[in-house]
Amino acid sequence: MKQSINIRRRIAELRSAMQAKGIQACIIPSSDAHQSEYVPEYWKTRMYFSGFTGSAGTLVVTNKNACLWTDSRYFLQAEKELEDTDIVLQKEKLPSTLSIEAWLCEQLPEGSYVGIDANVFNIGEVESMKEKMLTAGISLLTDFDPAAQIWTDRPPIPKNPVFLLEETFSGESLTHKVDRLRKKLEQDACNAILLCALDEVAWIFNIRGNDISCNPLTVAYALITPAKSVLFIDAQKITDSTFDYFQKNGVELVAYDALPDYLSRTKELLKIRLDSGKTNYYLYDVIRQLSEKGSTIRYILQSGPSPVALMKAVKNETEIAGFRSAMEKDGVALVQLLMWLEKSLAGKTPLSETDIVETNLIETDVATKIKAFRKRQSLYFGESFDAIVGYMEHGAIVHYHAEEATAGQLRPEGILLIDTGGQYFDGTTDITRTISLGAITPEMKHDFTLVLKGHIAIATARFPENTRGAQLDVLARNHLWQEGLSYMHGTGHGVGHFLNVHEGPQHIRLEENPVCLEPGMVTSNEPGVYRSGKYGIRIENLVLVKKEMETDFGKFYGFETLTLCPIDLRLVQVEILSPKEKAWLNTYHQTVYQRLSPKLSKEEQDWLKHKTNEI
User: Fold this and answer.
1) Of 45, 236, 299, 430, which one has the fewest beta carbons inside 10 Å?
2) Backbone phi, psi, residue 286, to 5°
3) Does domain 2-141 sit in CATH 3.40.350.10?
4) Cα–Cα nearest to 273, from 186, 175, 174
5) Close Cβ partners of 460 (under 8 Å, ≥ 6 residues apart)
6) Can you give the three-state secondary structure of 531-554, one letter per residue?
7) What is the pTM of this model?
8) Tell me, what's the pLDDT at 531?
């Protein structure tokens, strides 16, 4: 109740600030100045004003109303967190839900002004909003920072030290990456690029950081020109060793907030490529004004992914080997977790003196335990996202996050969904397993097997060169659709190499995306089904796109499954699997056992052998 009172007070203060500015509405997104999915505390303005803690959502406040738009992953969570705040949930992508612009055009009279902070919107978003609202006579003001006068205890922009990712892990030097990038820029009729996305900055310079929870990133910008590689970063982040590294590689270091001034003073003749989806509108406005004033700077706006995004999406052999190594370590940790969980629920003997069997388990105990098992693995850095552990009805909340005070009590019955991932210096993992804790219903078993059939369909897909993810998505959904079932999230997202667990530009989902799947890309394979108030099921492995064959009809690609962890056979309705599906599952389990068993104790080997028995 206290939280909802705080939210209502903050909204009231925001409306006062809007009135003082002469605006009738404001839009507050989830993003930061770098268009990140997960943001430092400094940029969590939407959470501050709404109380909604999900990673995706947009708050819109007018003089009379307040609404929050979010996607299907967060519908149940948002309903709970917005309770008593007077903020109305708007469910994105449902036919009955208006877009933000359409809603504002209904709510506001002609001549109204809508305020935004240009630092946290990308170019494409602002231009689109301007165009859509102009039809209703509504103007967009881009210099309204809703937090400026209200969020008095706002955390600072993080200044944690940056560290190097050695070439033994990255597989390519900074200078070689920059040379490749410059050649690609020439093909785009540019000679420079401004990088705002933190994962792109980290990848091109072979650096990592601790500025964002779960994502090993540092807050910085980069400018690559024909003559220079410039990193805009707070000086407190630079250690002696990283300073020497940058000096050796000819990288110019400039203060993080000095980018506009640096651009205004440059004498280089630059034609800068700007990614309209990743460059914030404030910096675009700076560059546009400099260009119009006759400086040496010109720019080219491009709506597709930047060349850096495409370069880092295709992993090199060192990165691929790192993924395989990370999967083995992660698989060991997961086997130990599942074995511990099974023993704990059965009240059996501990695995060892350090693995104490616990009783009265709740969801958060499982999330805590997986961290403990991962920490034992070499090159472990941290979790790649906060673990999702949902028992029974909580599993139906796609991005459920258990809190100790309200976590579900585990019982030796029903099913538990565990979605978790680790960051290792040699790779990033993301896995979901749905497991039986005891007695299950025929419906659970049937749903699980339909999801498994979709998972296998993606894992075994063979497709021609230039295939897009949207062309494969139906394979994962077909068996569910035949019985009137579906899921509202994507089937697959790209995964970075010791970077973001959600990485573009490729994905597998219903929405069209022009980026084709190429050998070397790592993507998730995660169909699911969710019965609200009952349970959720998802099976997720990471897969590597690889070349399968070349015929008279061209090149054909397929997937190598990277993740190593048994799929719960107790939940499989074997009689509805085809012979090919059974063969895939048996082969997968054989691989899991062969790769993991040398790293396990005898007791763990025996447990895994049983879990990977042939069906």
Assistant:
1) 236
2) -60, -50
3) yes
4) 186
5) 558, 559, 580, 584
6) ECCCEEEECEEEEEEEEEEEECCE
7) 0.93
8) 96
Q: What are 451-464's pLDDT values in tens digits?
A: 999 999 999 999 99
Q: How far apart are CA 114 and CA 6, in angstroms?
A: 24
Give me the CATH code for the 163-305 domain, please.
Answer: 3.40.350.10
% of the chain at pLDDT higher than 90: 90
* Separate counts of helices (H) and strands (E) for the chain: 18, 28
Beta-carbon count within 10 A of 55 CB? 17
Query: Does 505 sit behind a cis peptide bond, omega within 30 degrees of 0 on the bond before it?
Result: yes
545-563 tens-digit pLDDT: 999 999 999 999 999 999 9
- CATH classification of 314-611, choosing from 3.10.290.10, 3.30.420.40, 3.90.230.10, 3.30.559.10? 3.90.230.10
Residue 356 has pLDDT above 70, yes or no: no
Cross-strand pairs, 537 = 529
Per DSSP (E only), the strands in 421-502 are: 422-424, 427-428, 431-436, 463-464, 492-494
Q: What is the model's pLDDT at position 530?
A: 97
Please name the residues in contact with 540: beta carbons below 8 A apart, sequence gap of 6 or more. Answer: 419, 430, 431, 432, 433, 524, 525, 526, 563
Same fold: 2-141 with 163-305: yes
For every residue of 377-403, DSSP letters joined together read STTEEEESS--EEEEGGGGGSTT----
Please give the backbone phi and psi of residue 361, each rounded to the nearest 5 degrees, phi first.
-70, 140
115 and 26 in contact (C-beta within 8 Å)? yes
Residue 9: its H or E element: helix 2-21
Under 8 Å between Cβ of 162 and 218? yes
Q: Is 528 helix (H, G, I), strand (E, B) or coil?
A: strand
Q: Which of the four pLDDT bands, split at 50, 70 and 90, describes residue 352?
A: low
In this structure, what token pair is assigned to residue 295? 């400086």
What percent of the chain stands above pLDDT 70? Answer: 98
Taking only the tens place, the pLDDT of each residue in 151-192 is 999 999 999 999 999 999 999 999 999 999 999 999 888 999
**Domain boundaries along the sequence of the chain:** 2-141, 163-305, 314-611
Torsion sign (Cα): 154, 157, 161, 165: positive
Distance separating alpha carbons of residues 353 and 131, to the nearest angstrom: 65
Average pLDDT, stretch 308-336?
98
Tell me which residue has tokens 């690029």.
193
Q: Residue 446's CB: how many other CB atoms inside 10 A?
A: 14
Amino acid at 24: Q
Bridge partners, 558 (sequence order): 546
Q: Comparing 398 with 47, which gets the higher pLDDT?
A: 47
Distance of CA 256 to the CA centre of its chain: 25
460 CB neighbour count, 10 Å cutoff: 15
Please identify which residue in the block is written with the tokens 């190097």: 164
Distance in angstroms (rounded) separating the CA atoms of residues 541 and 561? 7
